[in-house]
Amino acid sequence: MPVWGWILIAAIVVVAVLAIIVARSVGSRKRTERLKGRFGPEYERTVGQVGEQGAAEDELAARERKREKLDIVPLSPELRAKYAESWRTVQIEFADNPSSAVGAADRLVIQVMRDRGYPIDDFDQRAADISVDHPKVVEDYRTGHSIYLSQAQGDVGTEDQREAFVHYRALFEKLLETDENKDKPTEARA
Fold first, then answer.
1. pTM score, two decimals?
2. Which residues contact 82 (CB under 8 A, 6 or more apart)?
3. DSSP label of 154
4. Range of the structural domain that residue 90 is part of
5. For 51, left (φ over 0), alpha (ψ -120 to 50), or beta?
6. Are residues 81 and 40 part of one domain?
7. Separation CA 98–CA 168 (nearest Å)
8. What are the pLDDT digits (tens) for 106-117?
9. Of 44, 23, 21, whose CA–CA distance to 32 is shortest?
10. How many domains does one find in the chain?
11. Whose C-alpha in 60, 79, 99, 154 is 20 to 30 A from the C-alpha of 68?
């Protein structure tokens, strides 16, 4: 084979390798943009926790795949009304017994999650599952739960308990949402 033939083959191989590298780079960038858009602040938290962007993105993608396998259902109007009333009762209880109300809020959120179809056995897994559907409030859930656990050691005051309650309420309201009121402002919903 003439020398120019070998040069042509080498040039084709180099172009092919460069095309593959560019395609992977573009695919990786699109994946990153999609995950950042979907998970918002949870994306950054996961990257910080895992320590490596690729591994964090793999974890977030795995959460999405796991979530796709779950049968998450909206609450019936009756059950939604029952839970809304339960929340009002817990909120009233907060004035007299904040620590008890924070515990009741934690249990109520878990009950709603169970009725929606989320697995509830492990807190970290609950938070991961919630992060797929509600990435903007999953940190509220983590913070509220952390305060709830801290109050068992007596390390929290009433202001911290109020903060936990507010964090639980943010997730609770998202869990009660239905598809038809998902995009309406919170004030417009009953």
1. 0.75
2. none
3. T
4. 77-188
5. left
6. no
7. 13
8. 999 999 999 999
9. 44
10. 2
11. 79
